[in-house]
Write a structure and sequence with these properties.
Elements (H helix, E strand, L loop, with lengths): L6 H14 L8 E12 L3 E12 L7 E6 L4 H6 L38 E7 L2 E11 L2 E8 L2 E9 L5 H15 L10 E6 L2 E6 L27 E8 H9 L5
Antiparallel strand pairs: 1-2, 2-3, 4-5, 5-6, 6-7, 7-10, 8-9, 9-10
Length: about 250
Amino acid sequence: KTINVIQKNFNRRQDYLRKIGQIYNKDVYVEYILSLEKYQNQQNFQTVIDELHIYTSSNKKSLLGSKIEKRDHKNLIEHWLLSDGITNPLVGISAFQFSHNRLQDKLSASNSLSQACKKTKKIKMHQVVVCTEHFSKNTEVIISYLGGKVAQIDLVAVGDILPSEAKTIVNNIKSFLKLSKLTTKYKVMQWEDYKVNFTLYSDALNHKTPKQSNYKNIFDNGSIQAKRTVILTMMAKDTKKLLSDLGVKI
């Protein structure tokens, strides 16, 4: 957000810099006053910036500008995707990335994600967030977060996939998952690697949309599933165990 500058102090600072010949690259000093609101897993907490002050020097004698948070902290945090913090204890799987996403990685707190992500429900103490990203002309990647960490990554079709598009998708899957080859002649193919379970549905790549390929996601409330055909789904074995411990049937 923008911070209104105290013009008199700013002009005085600029006049001083001109006199000593240091108009550029002159430091300013920022002071934050934080409020720690919630705490999870001995390492994660939600923080609200209560006040922000910019000074011309470290002695804080000349104030350039300030910003004060006047909104209610509880209401403010509830609007965050990570309003409950990171409650998922699992450690990220770094063996591969699928379209810049890694299983069990933390959900970024970036405000830009609010356009692509939504809270769907809670599984016990864990908030569920589902994010949708563009992958190719007729496909999307859906990333489901459980307790602030990636629980499942799905590649789904949202329209009829072109032959050239199908070839690119297969090549991308091979590259992301470090596979030497990948066949699409089977309707359903399952394998395990990096302590992750993978399932590939070839129907969408062959212009077919049978019921077995209808996209279903236990983390979603049903609003995005009926219009999509699953191509590839992946979930870590540790996530499956965690869900089982929480009483969720997969």
